[in-house]
Amino acid sequence: SPILAIETTCDETACAILSPEGAILAETVHTQSGHAALGGVVPEIAARAHLALLPDIVAETLEKSGLALAEIGAFAACTGPGLIGGLIVGSNYAKGLAVALDRPFLAVNHIEAHALTARLPGLFAHDIKFPYLLLLVSGGHCQCIAVKGIGNYEKLGGTIDDAAGEAFDKVAKMLGLGWPGGPALEKLAREGRSDAVALPRPLMGREGCDFSFSGLKTAVARQIAPYGMEALPRPVAADIAASFQRCVCDVMADRARHALALLPEAQSLVVAGGVAANGAIRTALEALAGEAGIPFVAPPLRFCTDNAVMVGWAALETIRACQGAGQALEDGIPTAPRPRWPLTEMVPPGNAM
Ligand code: ATP
Ligand code: MG
Ligand code: FE
């Protein structure tokens, strides 16, 4: 029977219902609008909004699916990592439904959900096989992950300061663009020349595949300072935006190249997270995958950003892997909300303590 999944880790309140095979029966994603005016996600406001929105979002999703609540066979929600308030609201809502209907509840790791999205049935003509390299680049995350199997992940590298999306947002803010800044910055960059402004490419060429963006951000600030944000001529802003974006592309391709060297058996290069919406970054990574002779896999944008379909799919993958390993679901993952929950703490089904 179908599974109902909930996502509330940040500022998306989302619900999805999937068939046991992973077909999407219904889906709703609500991006909370109040945060833009405040220049970023305010955790307490987000949590209260999740609480207010969830009953309607779940009801709306059930209605779209044509199913009655009693026909749902399992419930899933992210219990981490993320903002604690949202985690508590979303996971307790799903747990409450599971207890009321006497169905299993599955605690899903939000990063694992991003990591497994590429395997959603029907997205690509070919199966995405293990192991693959995942580049997770969003507002809160910037990591190179070796995806070796369900519950089996190795972090090859990550950011030592800002996440990629955070860097886009901060630079966009300095350029006087709104929040979230990524899309606006990409648009402005089209008017500029990417070789106009000399900017650093942090950690490029260095061993491993860690990221750093704070030096780049500071260098951008130094370029803007002589003008002041209000008096920044648009052509200058466009040149800075284009040059910044070029740097991020170069750094990402370089870091991904190093990550592939650490995972030579990678079957494909998969990108996820909101920053994967960026056309220039997609092009740079596609070229790199071509060089390495492996497919470049970029899920459609609505599955790159936060959504509940990926949560339901990760839960289904976990259920199937548990069945395959002869492990009971309740012997699996602890269900208490965990603001920090690194993928490296996941345990592959069959290996539970
Ligand atoms: P999490 O890390 O928990 O998923 P999040 O909700 O911030 O957090 P997403 O919703 O996946 O992450 O992505 C949002 C981020 O993606 C923002 O930082 C935004 O600026 C960035 N982004 C979106 N579109 C683009 C784009 N075209 N170019 C660059 N960055 C972009
Ligand atoms: Mg978001
Ligand atoms: Fe996310």
TrEMBL record:
It is found in: Cytoplasm. Its EC number is 2.3.1.234. Residues 24-313 form the Gcp-like domain. Substrate binds at L136, V137, S138, G139, G140, D169, G182, E186, N278. InterPro entries: ATPase_NBD (IPR043129), Gcp-like_dom (IPR000905), KAE1/TsaD (IPR017861), Peptidase_M22_CS (IPR017860), TsaD (IPR022450). Its main location: cytoplasm. GO terms for molecular function: tRNA N(6)-L-threonylcarbamoyladenine synthase activity. Pfam families: TsaD (PF00814). Fe cation binds at H110, H114, D306. Keywords: Acyltransferase, Cytoplasm, Iron, Metal-binding, Transferase, tRNA processing. SUPFAM superfamilies: Actin-like ATPase domain. It comes from the Bacteria. It catalyses: L-threonylcarbamoyladenylate + adenosine(37) in tRNA = N(6)-L-threonylcarbamoyladenosine(37) in tRNA + AMP + H(+). The keyword Nucleotide-binding does not apply. Binds 1 Fe(2+) ion per subunit. The keyword Acyltransferase applies. Its cofactor is Fe(2+). Belongs to the KAE1 / TsaD family. Required for the formation of a threonylcarbamoyl group on adenosine at position 37 (t(6)A37) in tRNAs that read codons beginning with adenine. Is involved in the transfer of the threonylcarbamoyl moiety of threonylcarbamoyl-AMP (TC-AMP) to the N6 group of A37, together with TsaE and TsaB. TsaD likely plays a direct catalytic role in this reaction. This is tRNA N6-adenosine threonylcarbamoyltransferase. It comes from Asaia spathodeae. The gene is tsaD.
